Amino acid sequence: MSGEVKVQVTKEIFKYAVDHSSQLHSVQKELIEFTKTNIERHIMLTQADQCSFFRLLLKVLNAKKTIDIGVFTGLSSLTAALAMGDEGRVVACDVSTDYTQHALKFWAKAGVDHKINLKIQPASKTLQELIDQGEENTYDFIFIDADKTGYDTYYELSLKLIRKGGIIAIDNVLQHGCIIDQSNNEPNVIAIRALNDKIAADQRVTISMLPVADGITLVTKN
């Protein structure tokens, strides 16, 4: 496979691409500004190019049921809720209210809080509960962006919940470039490297890893 890089994505090129994509909702912009100004770990925030990309995917999928694993201040859940019609639903999974307390007010301000079911407990528990409730093969889109050492568990449970033709999006698969440094033995890097290798060889799925943001792998069941 060709390894040719056709364009170096500078800040200026990135801004040009974002400016020429579907624009964010005013509340999305407000949430981003709030997070960058008030939250020390704002690097965890979903990027603007991801938001427009996910909006497109959700429209193409005609999505009505989604899961957001790792909520933070709520941008990815907000993006999904805004992209779907009034019948759309987001199961938002997080283990803490430290950041999600902020998400609630932005969801309400955007008028989509009725679409989002925030579950404060381990995501693996929430996903298993959905399976136990008979919701296997019914979800259109699942976004995994939480604790990296838990990704493999989330991936396996998500494969049960996603419908055929649905998409699982897995974030941070490049680990800020550390993924190709074999001397890097940080737990997060080890976990993501192992998952990347596993998914690349997984005959159950068709995948594409994209160098968007910190790397996104898109997965659909065969």
Distinct helical segment count: 8
Oligomer: single chain
Proportion in helices: 40-55%
Distance between the termini: 22 Å
Description of the structure:
The protein is globular and about 45 Å long. Helix 2 runs antiparallel to helix 5 (97-109). With 222 residues, the protein is of the alpha/beta class. The protein has helices spanning 11-19, 26-38, 48-61, 75-83, 97-109, 123-132, 151-161, 187-200; strands at residues 65-69, 89-94, 116-120, 139-144, 162-171, 205-210, 216-221. It has 8 helices and 7 strands. Strands 3-2-1-4-5-7-6 form a 7-stranded mixed β-sheet, with helices on both faces.
List the helices and strands and how they pair.
Layout: H1 11-19, H2 26-38, H3 48-61, E1 65-69, H4 75-83, E2 89-94, H5 97-109, E3 116-120, H6 123-132, E4 139-144, H7 151-161, E5 162-171, H8 187-200, E6 205-210, E7 216-221
Parallel strand pairs: 1-2, 1-4, 2-3, 4-5
Antiparallel strand pairs: 5-7, 6-7
Helix pairs in contact: 2-5, 3-4, 6-7
Task: Please give a handful of descriptors for the protein shown.
222 residues, alpha/beta, seven-stranded mixed sheet, 20% strand
Summarize this entry quickly.
The protein is of the alpha/beta class and 222 residues long.
